[in-house]
Design a protein that fits this description.
Layout lengths: L10 E7 L5 E8 L5 E7 H11 L2 E2 L10 H24 L6
């Protein structure tokens, strides 16, 4: 049973990153902005997607405000940074003695 305020025609988009330009990482939701799927599209396709769905652009998530999804993303980004550093350490040549 759907809540009374659920609107299946409402579409929501929240940009979550652009770590790999020209791609846009974003969350897309129908009816309830708290239940979304994550997608990645090139910038032009993202703009077309938003227009075709008449999506409402939501503000970015804020880890400082206690948003658990934002904290999770920040944690994953930190972990990826550490993995890249570890890979760099393993692949760089050893200094000559």
């Amino acid at each position: 049973m759907c809540p009374a305020d659920f609107d299946p025609t409402a579409r929501f988009v929240r940009v979550t990153g652009q770590q790999h330009p020209p791609f846009v990482e974003f969350a897309f939701a129908i009816g309830d902005p708290t239940l979304s799927v994550e997608l990645v599209l090139p910038e032009a396709a993202f703009q077309a997607f938003c227009q075709a769905n008449q999506a409402t652009l939501l503000a970015p998530l804020d880890a400082e405000a206690g948003d658990w999804a934002a904290r999770l993303r920040a944690s994953q980004a930190d972990e990826e940074g550490h993995e890249q550093q570890a890979h760099h350490c393993l692949t760089r040549p050893w200094p000559s003695e």
